[in-house]
Amino acid sequence: MKEDMDTQHAFSKDPFHHDIILKTLQSTLNVNDYISVLDRDCTYRYVNLAYKKYFNLDEADILGKTHKELFGAEFYKKTIRPNLEKCLQGESVHYSAWYKHNKIQRYISVTCLPYRPFGDAIMGIIINGRDTTELKNISDKHKIQKAYFENLFQQSPDAIAILDNNDRVVNVNDAFTELFGYTLRESLGKPINSLVVPDDLKKEGLEATMSVASGQNISLETVRKTKSGKLIHVSIIGKPILMENNQLAVYGIYRDITRRKKTEEKIARDLKEKEVLLKEIHHRVKNNMQIISSLLNMQIRYVKDEADKEIFRESQNRIKSMALIHERLYKSDDLTHISFEEYTRKVVSYLLASYESGPKNIDFIFDIEDLAIPINQAIPLGLIVNEIISNSLKYAFKDTPKPVIHISLHKIDSRFEMIIQDNGCGLDLSKKPEESKTMGIHLIKTLTAQLHGTLDMESDQGLAYTIHW
């Protein structure tokens, strides 16, 4: 019994016991890499699953063997052994090399760490390998193209600065010196922020550089300063590039857009002046229409015949509906479109106030999509709404206990659809518009034609107008 306990105790102190290895690796290494553990004789004692899959080997093909047996005597002597010997002396070693096994050749970055499972004593070596073949190929390709790149770099008409991932200048071309005034000697090793970024834009400049250093492309227009302190407008394109040490760096292209910006600012000022003028025109048109409406209102006082008064009132409402368009535009930031729902509610409010003798308990149902209607369509459309609602208020609800007017406007695909429907007495649609005593229906059809639209009318439990344009 004592002998069994001694054996178990000795086994638990075995530095290459599976549980001890895993416990050590768990706290220090990424198990997704190719991990192996060697004893002091550089014999394999453990490999993880990633290692076996990578080299397409079973444990029986690896454990108990050395690198020399797996990868050949020449490669072992030249590359592997010197690094393993350093590691056994207590150094952490990093190197990269081409590994070849069973006709598979890959470039692997290797880290060798002293294996100390029980304290300071070195029991062996932990090897962490990572396939960096793609980065190696990119690096080699970069070296081949370096001369070509340098030629393009110096001959570019745009200012170019190459920065490391800590924002420090690695290289600048002649165009950079011409634009900002700093030579390569003056720029080298200095943060780009301290050279060309104004004080109030330091945060923006650093964030831009760090974004590119993390692998993102950026494009922005901003302000930078020259060596003399002059502020200039520039467009900046930032791209990540891979340096010879496999570190990401920042490739920044600067183009002077000061002249373009000044032109844009002048255009913006001119446009603002024109907008102010156009707003004033809309305001004056609205005021002139209100004057005309007031004159008609004064004239109505001298008209005795009720039918004549009605003609004046209808004309007044039409003028108000057009004046309201110009009022909406005057108050809007968009001088080419109006929000039609707000406009329609305002027209209804005016008409209800105008027809004092009409029904008062009308339920208006608005189903109007939030659409911006172009000004060349808004005026005829507003007059159509005015005519249809006016006709309903005057004629539709003489015997209707609960009058309802439903107004909807939607955009279906690329066309607009407006439906205005009441539940009144309807209309004899067999009559031609020209036979009507009023110009309402004729005007609605004329205005629909101005919209290059179509008008459909149905008289079933009321009257419904459907307009598509």
Notes on the protein architecture:
With 469 residues, the protein is of the alpha+beta class. It has helices at 2-12, 18-28, 49-55, 59-62, 67-71, 73-88, 133-155, 174-180, 184-187, 192-196, 202-213, 258-300, 306-331, 340-354, 375-396, 440-450, and strands spanning 34-39, 44-47, 93-101, 104-115, 124-131, 159-163, 169-172, 218-225, 231-242, 248-256, 337-339, 363-368, 372-374, 404-412, 415-422, 454-458, 463-468. The strands form four sheets. A five-stranded antiparallel β-sheet has the order 2-1-5-4-3, sandwiched between helices. Strands 7-6-10-9-8 form a five-stranded antiparallel β-sheet. Helix 12 runs antiparallel to helix 13 (306-331) and helix 15 runs antiparallel to helix 16 (440-450). The relative contact order is 0.05. The model is unreliable at 1-11 (pLDDT under 50).
Structural class: alpha+beta
Radius of gyration: 42 Å
Residue share in β-strands: 15-25%
Q: Give the spatial strand order of the biggest sheet.
A: 2-1-5-4-3
Uncertain segments are 1-11
Number of strands: 17
Fraction of residues in H or I helices: 40-55%
So what's the overall shape? elongated
